């Protein structure tokens, strides 16, 4: 259990999101950089990353957060801040920018099957606008 000034909590969220156009760009040095940036965001926001997996075409994040942070805010922080930081640090150097597709999967703590995540990824329609 964790505590804040006014709450005792154990809130853990599983968040999954995809690169824009579902490109398999999260490999090698790019994946390492994204991992580092996601940990920086968690540290800055007072969150605890319980598990993080960066696959070539999606990111799995299992994060513990105080109750004041709703899942949508967490997803927006991790997606928005990570793309801005990555592009600011590395886009001029490598020429490759990171962008995330619209939307995300969010689930609460408990058992999240790989089938659930696979279904989300397969159903995701890329909005190229």
- The assigned structural class equals alpha+beta
CATH classification, class level: Alpha Beta
Q: Give the count of helical stretches.
A: 3
Please identify which CATH superfamily we are dealing with. Transposase IS200-like
The CATH architecture term is 2-Layer Sandwich
Distance between the termini: 42 Å
Low-pLDDT stretches are 125-129
Q: State the CATH topology.
A: Alpha-Beta Plaits
Radius of gyration: 15 Å
Q: What is the H/E order? A: EEEHEEHEH
- Averaged pLDDT: 87
Domain Transposase IS200-like: 8-124
Protein name: Putative transposase
InterPro entries: Transposase_17 (IPR002686), Transposase_17_sf (IPR036515)
GO molecular function: DNA binding; transposase activity
Can you tell me about this structure?
Residues 8-124 form the Transposase IS200-like domain. One of its GO terms (molecular function) is DNA binding. By secondary structure, the chain is an alpha+beta fold. The protein has a single domain (9-127), classed as Alpha-Beta Plaits, CATH 3.30.70. The protein is 40% helix and 22% strand. The chain contains three helices and six strands. The chain has helices spanning 28-45, 71-94, 114-123; strands at 2-3, 8-9, 12-17, 48-55, 58-64, 105-108. The strands form two sheets. Strands 4-5-3-6 form a four-stranded antiparallel β-sheet, sandwiched between helices. A two-stranded antiparallel sheet has the order 1-2. A hairpin with a 2-residue loop joins strand 4 and strand 5. The longest helix has 24 residues, at 71-94. The chain starts with a strand and ends in a 6-residue tail after the last helix. The relative contact order is 0.23.
